[in-house]
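Quick one:
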Amino acid sequence: MATASKMPERKRTSSVHGRLLGYLLVPLLLLLVAGVAVDHHVIVSPIHSAFDHSLSRSALAIVARIRPGSNGQPQVGLPQYPPLPLRAMADERFFYRVSTPDGQTIAGTPELPLAPENRSSDGFSYTNIQFRNQPFRLASYRTSESGTPLIVSVAENPLRRDRAVHRLDVAFLINDTVQMAAVLLIALIGIRIALRPLQRLSKQIAGRPPLSLSPLPIEQVPAEVRPVVASLNTVLGRVRDSVLSQQHFMANAAHQLRTPLTGLKAQLEVLTRETVGTPLQERISLLQGGVDRLAHTANQLLTLARAEPSAHRASHFTTVELAHLVGEVIDGLLDRALARGIDLGADTQPTHVSGVYWLLHELLINLIDNAIRHTPPGGNVTVRCGVVDGHAFLEVDDSGCGIPPEERTKVRERFYRGAGSHADGCGLGLAIVDEVARVHGAQLSILDGSSGRGVRMRIDFPAASQG
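Output:
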C-alpha cells in the first residue's frame, strides 16, 4: 500500500530588517552583561571599604572606652552585648571582644576569633569568618593600655553591605538596560530609515504593470543594491528582446502571408466567375472558404502580435471616446448582422478612457464578431458603454448559445475552440480581447447574458484610465 510522501517544509525567508536586528541584538546583550559585571566590580570595593571604615570606627569607639582598672587590669565600659542601633535590620548582629595577645578575654564575646595580623593602611586587620553558622566581617585592632597590649575585635554580619551592593546592582542594571534599549531603538529607527530606498524600490516594482519590461531606474538606489537592480534590468532587457523578437516574427510571418493570400483570393474569384455552372464551382468555393479562413487567421495573428503589452508605451495612449468607437464599429458590422437576421444595437453613455484607439477598435470588432457568429438568426446583440462607480465599462451582450462556466477560463487561451465554435473561427478572438484589456489595465469578465440566454462580455477599465 502506497504511503503519501510528506511535503517538504518551506524555509522561512528572513528579511534584511530582521537580520540587521539580530546582528545588533546579540552584541548589545553581550555589552549589557559585560557592563553590569564591570559596574558590579567597580562598586563592590568602595562599598566594602566604606563599611570596613565604619566597622573600624566602632572598634576605635570601644578603644576609647578602655580604662585602667583598680586591680591593674584594663576595664571596658560596655556591656557584653551592646544594644543595636535604632535602624538595625531584623537579622543584624554585632559582636566585640577585648583580649590580650595570649587569648585572655577582658570584655565582650570570648569565642569571637581574632583576625590574622595582616594590617592594612589604617592599622586594622580584616577578614571574613563563619561565626555561629553565619557569615561575619571581622576587624581587629592592636593597641595597648597602661603598657598592657590589647586586641580589640569587632564583627558584624554583612546584611547592610550586601543590601547596598544589591541595590546598586539593580540600579546599574536598570540604567544599563535603559541605555541599551535606547541604543537599540535608535538603531531600529536608523535601520528603518536606511531601508526606505529598498521599500520604495519594492513598491515601485509592485506598482509596475504585470507585463512591463522597462528597466528600473537606479539613480536613487543605494550603492549596495545597485548590482542587484542592474542584474534585474539585464534580465528584463533580455526578456524584452526575446518578446520583441517573437512579436516581430509573428508580425512578419502574418504580413508575409497576407500578400500571397490576397493574390490567391483574387485568382480564386476569377476562377469562380469562369466556372459558374461547372462541376469545379463547388470545389473552388470550398477552396475560397479555406483561403478566407487562412487570411482571417493571418490577420488575427498580426493583431495579436501588435497587441502585446510590452509593445506599447505611455506615449501611445490617447483619450478615446467609447460611444464614438461603438458607433464606428457597429456601422462597419451592421450589414453582416442584418445578413444573418440579427438585431445589432447600442446603448451608450458619454464615456472616455485613456487607451490605444486601434487596439480598442480591434477589441470591440472581435467581441461583436464573436457575438454575431454565435447568435442564431432572430437574435440580438447589444453593445453598451458607460461609467459605474467611477469605472468606465464596455460590454457586448448577445442572446446566443452562451459559454458554459467551466469553459470561460479556457476560451481566453490562444487557439482554444469550444464545442460550439464555428468552423470559420481560429480561436484567437478572445485571446486578442484579453491581451488588449491587459494593455489597458482592464479586466475581461465573461458573464451570463442579461436576457437569460447567451453571454455578456464585459471590459472594466481602471478608475485612473477614465477621463
